């Protein structure tokens, strides 16, 4: 026996049932975007750091210039947990480690880190 209204309201019920799955999918996609953006930031920061490191004198001055330039363009959400290290002689390398934020940058971070690497030949001063 069929009701006179048929399937009226069925789409609303199905949408309510699917809403948690839709929201979960959007949250996971957004988190994947944040992970990718953190990889991009780490790579760019490493490039900037090694560029500054090749122009600085070896030793403490190189590490200071490298760290300052490596974190210069990072927003505070990524800068707070960032570590920058430079080294090498002749061929300078930089490594930048950033924490991946959970959903909103600046609130909490995943315990895992994203690493960006860069290297360049040291500039010769004449």
Topology:
Layout: H1 10-55, H2 60-72, H3 76-79, E1 83-87, E2 91-101, E3 109-121
Antiparallel strand pairs: 1-2, 2-3
Helix pairs in contact: 1-2
Strand order of the largest sheet: 1-2-3
Please summarize the sheet with the most strands.
Answer: 3 strands, antiparallel
| Beta-strand content estimate | 15-25%
Mean pLDDT: 84
Q: Give the end-to-end Cα distance, rounded to a whole number of Å.
A: 95 Å
The parts where pLDDT drops under 50 for at least 5 residues are none
Helix content: 40-55%
Transmembrane segments: 21-42
Keywords: Membrane, Transmembrane, Transmembrane helix
Protein name: Septum formation initiator
Can you describe this structure?
- A hairpin with a 3-residue loop joins strand 1 and strand 2.
- The chain is about 50% helix and about 25% strand.
- The protein is α+β, with helices and mostly antiparallel strands.
- The chain starts with 9 loop residues before the first helix and ends in a 5-residue tail after the last strand.
- It has helices spanning about 10-55, 60-70, 75-80, and strands spanning about 85, 90-100, 110-120.
- The protein is rod-shaped, with a radius of gyration of 24 Å.
- A 3-stranded antiparallel β-sheet has the order 1-2-3.
- The chain is built from 3 helices and 3 strands; from the N terminus they run αααβββ.
- It has one domain (about 10-120).
- Keywords: Membrane, Transmembrane, Transmembrane helix.
- This is Septum formation initiator.
């Amino acid at each position: 026996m069929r009701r006179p209204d048929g399937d009226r309201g069925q789409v609303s019920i199905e949408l309510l049932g699917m809403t948690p799955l839709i929201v979960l999918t959007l949250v996971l996609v957004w988190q994947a975007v944040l992970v990718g953006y953190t990889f991009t930031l780490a790579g760019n920061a490493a490039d900037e750091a090694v560029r500054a490191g090749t122009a600085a004198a070896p030793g403490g001055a190189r590490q200071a210039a490298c760290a300052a330039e490596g974190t210069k363009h990072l927003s505070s959400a990524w800068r707070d947990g960032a570590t920058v290290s430079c080294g090498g002689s002749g061929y300078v390398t930089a490594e930048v480690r950033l924490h991946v934020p959970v959903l909103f940058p600046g609130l909490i971070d995943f315990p895992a880190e994203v690493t960006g690497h860069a290297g360049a030949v040291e500039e010769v001063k004449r």
